[in-house]
Design a protein that fits this description.
It is a single chain. About 40% of the residues lie in helices and about 20% in strands. By secondary structure, it is of the alpha/beta class. The protein has one domain: Flavodoxin domain (Rossmann fold). Strand 1, helix 1 and strand 2 form a beta-alpha-beta unit. Helix 1 crosses helix 6. The longest helix has 18 residues. The protein is globular and about 45 Å long. It binds flavin mononucleotide (FMN). The site of flavin mononucleotide has 20 residues, from helix 1, strand 4 and helix 4.
């Protein structure tokens, strides 16, 4: 299986998640979105896209990358999405937590965009938690990320 993980990262946390995933699953590679514009998706069996959540959405670079992918490239292609996001336990006051939950997360936007372009979405969108705007990731999140991708691959292989 050939897995391409395209990610953006401002402070390095989403990059850590993407690289941990790529290191855990043979046949996968992680590419920063700035290097992904001309990437060839032919032969990619699972496209994974990851972004920090910023203002409830993916970064502009990830958004542009997805917008630039032709429907012909994506129709029927298996895809999965993840984001990094603030741990709500660290957000105060409580009404701000509510605003963030209602506002939503990058992975949910990505799931919708890719599904609209005809991707076969695999697994649920995942959110990996940081404890402040610049991180760090919570303990155990890299292991959870590795397990998330391993589970996706196992599910895809079982189909
Ligand atoms: C301008 C800005 C907006 C943000 N908006 C959100 C948000 O809407 N929801 C959230 O959970 N985290 C938000 N965050 C926290 C980011 O998710 C966090 O910076 C990101 O996960 C770190 O990933 P990176 O190190 O790969 O850039 C925001 C951070 C910044 C700096």
């Amino acid at each position: 299986m050939s897995i391409l993980i395209v990610y953006d990262s401002i402070f390095g946390n989403t990059a850590q998640v993407a690289l941990a995933m790529a290191g855990a699953v043979p046949g996968s590679r992680a590419v920063p979105v700035r290097d992904a514009a001309t990437i060839d998706l032919n032969g990619v069996t699972l496209l994974v896209i990851g972004s920090p959540t910023r203002g409830f959405r993916p970064t502009p670079a990830i958004q542009e990358f997805v917008d630039g992918l032709g429907d012909d490239m994506l129709a029927g292609r298996r895809a999965s999405v993840f984001d990094t996001r603030l741990d709500l336990e660290t957000v105060h006051p409580a009404p701000l937590r509510w605003v963030m939950e209602v506002g939503g997360y990058a992975a949910n936007t990505l799931e919708r965009l890719l599904a609209e372009k005809g991707c076969v979405m695999t697994g649920k969108p995942a959110g990996f938690l940081v404890s402040g705007s610049e991180g760090p990731l919570l303990a155990g999140e890299l292991e959870r990320a590795r397990d998330w991708l391993r589970d996706l691959v196992a599910a895809a292989n079982a189909d």
